[in-house]
Amino acid sequence: MRIGGLPWLLLPMTVLMALFFGAFAVFAFVSFLQPASGMPGYQGPFGVANYVRFLTDPTALGILAETIVFAIAVTIVSILLGYPLAYIMARSPHRIIRSLLLGALVLTFLSGSINRAYGWLILLGRRGVVNDALLALGLVDRPVALVYNWTGVFIALLHFTLPYFALTVFGSIRSVPAQVEEAARDLGAGALTTFFRITVPITVPAIISGAALVFSLAISAFAFPLLLGGGRVRLISNFIYDQLFVSFNLPFAAASSTIFLIVAVATLCGFFWLEGIATRRRIPMGGLA
């Protein structure tokens, strides 16, 4: 049934998207104003001073650059650890192992970011389980600083993003017929050759999709650097938060958010562009079989 040519089913989505983009449009409009003197708020004149301030501020640019590099590092390690994990889940002949690994990954989604962050504080703290184990084994003479630095934030964020990548790639690996790999081995290819010449190339689009998902989660991380960084690790989300609730500079926070969103969207578009290329160049299944 249609109203003026618009299907009924499109109405909820249209309203939702209008609210989302309308709220962002208002926020972007505020970025062109100036903070009100002596009180939270904003006022005229209308201009680009907030954008100029961000783009000429070494601290702001440094935090943005560190955030991008940090997100890329988390993405790379997620690929290196997540793909073998997904492959084991997809190709393990033991159903119990597959079920346990899948269950462990799904279980991580039941706990929020705050719970995970505090859990890692208990594990990685100076009096935490990891340091106690290292001291008991005689591997270190004093507790190792694993929290309130980049190390703790990286470990916690990797733990958060790894299931997203592994589950994204898992379905793609499962869709590759096992007969294709068996045919390659029958023709003399070893296990590693089959893995790198057959399985990985076929699943490259899924790898890029999973990497894009991990990158978007890592670049927008807020709770982990806030709780595990101890004020020493500041990503761009924490920087924007400080502008809002510490400096009460809403226009500059809006400008920072807009610049961050543009950079994030541009990077994700790059991921999607690579995924499109990989999909077009992928060898058809029929040709492999």
What key attributes describe this structure?
two-stranded antiparallel ribbon, MetI-like fold, mainly alpha, 73% helix, 289 residues, disordered C terminus
Describe what this molecule looks like in 3D.
The longest helix has 34 residues. Helices cover 73% and strands 3% of the residues. The chain has a single domain, classed as Orthogonal Bundle (MetI-like fold), CATH 1.10.3720.10. A two-stranded antiparallel ribbon has the order 1-2. The chain has a two-stranded antiparallel ribbon with strand order 3-4. The chain is mostly helical and 289 residues long. A hairpin with a 2-residue loop joins strand 1 and strand 2. It is globular and about 75 Å long. It has 14 helices and 4 strands.
CATH superfamily: MetI-like
- The fold-level CATH name is MetI-like fold
CATH class bucket: Mainly Alpha
Backbone shape: globular
What is the radius of gyration? 24 Å
Count of DSSP strands:
4
For the record, give the distance between the C-alpha atoms at the N and C termini, rounded to a whole number: 45 Å
| Count of runs of 4 or more consecutive helical residues | 14
Largest sheet: 2 strands, antiparallel
Low-confidence stretches: 283-289
Assigned CATH architecture: Orthogonal Bundle
Structural class: mainly alpha
Q: Any idea how many domains?
A: 1
* Helix residue percentage: over 70%
Order of helices and strands: EEHEEHHHHHHHHHHHHH
Question: Strand share of the residues?
Answer: under 5%
Strand order of the largest sheet: 1-2
Q: Mean pLDDT score, rounded?
A: 85
